[in-house]
Structures are given as structure tokens and as C-alpha cells.
Amino acid sequence: MIYPWLVFLHVISVLGFVMSHGISVGIYFSLHHERNADRIRLLLQNSSSSLGIMQFSLLLLLITGIITGFIGRWWGRGWIWLSIGILVVLFVAMEFLGVKMFNNIRLAVGLPSTRGQKPRAELASIEELGALLDHFQPFLLAGIGFGGLAVIAWLMMFKPF
Fold this sequence. Notes:
Blueprint: H1 2-31, H2 37-47, H3 51-71, H4 78-108, H5 126-135, H6 138-158
Helix pairs in contact: 1-2, 1-3, 4-5, 4-6
């Protein structure tokens, strides 16, 4: 009887993660065209506001996924391992394509990074900031994130192997 509740919590945690992460995604798209350092700072400060909810949702997602994997006896099936592999690939891709770039922009406009790195003593020039923002790829990040989550959802729903 606990299994359906754990699956429910797992799905709710995914929704919480996507909802809280959506704030950052929206800001990614706004940053791509922004060149005003004050507005960029404000956008980046807003993106940090949902990190706690996002991290809690991710932790709950992992805990409920692991427990339901045991209760449902899914650990012998390939779909659950592929789902975990895709999730790891998503984390790595988001770290290198998203978080790293996001933190470089944060440091350039005088904000600390989300990893605790102190801001630069001197703000980036407009040209340097423009070059950073020109290399930022929000469509690629969103496509990788959405595509990966869509494949994981398909694997969980249809359990093909």
C-alpha cells in the first residue's frame, strides 16, 4: 500500500524540481539578450531564490526513486539503470554547460558564484560581458534538460526492458 504513495511523492518531487528550476530556465533565456550589468545582477539574484526548493525536491526525487526501485523490484531491469545513467549525464551536462557559464557571468557582474567563489574585484567590461553572454546557449540547455527528462519519463511509464 505504501508503493503508490511513494510513486506519488516521486512524481510530486519531479514537479517541484521542474517548477523551481523553471525560474532559472526563464532567466537563462532572459540573459541571452541582456547586456545591462545591473539587470543581469538582478536576474541572477532572482535565480538563486529557488535553489533550496530545487535541491530539496531533487533529494526527495532520489530518495523516493531508490525506495520504489526496491519495493517494486525494479533493480534487475534495464530501464531503471538507463534512467539513472541519463540523470547522471544530465547533471554533468548542466554543470558544464549551465552552472559553469552561469557562475562565470555571476562573477563578471560582481556577484559570488553559487559554488562560493568570491566576485571579481573589477567588473567585466561591456565587451567581455557580451562575449560571455554570446557563448551562453539557453536553447541547448533547455533541449538537453527537457529531452533527458522526457526519455526518463518514457522509461518509467513504459518500462520497455
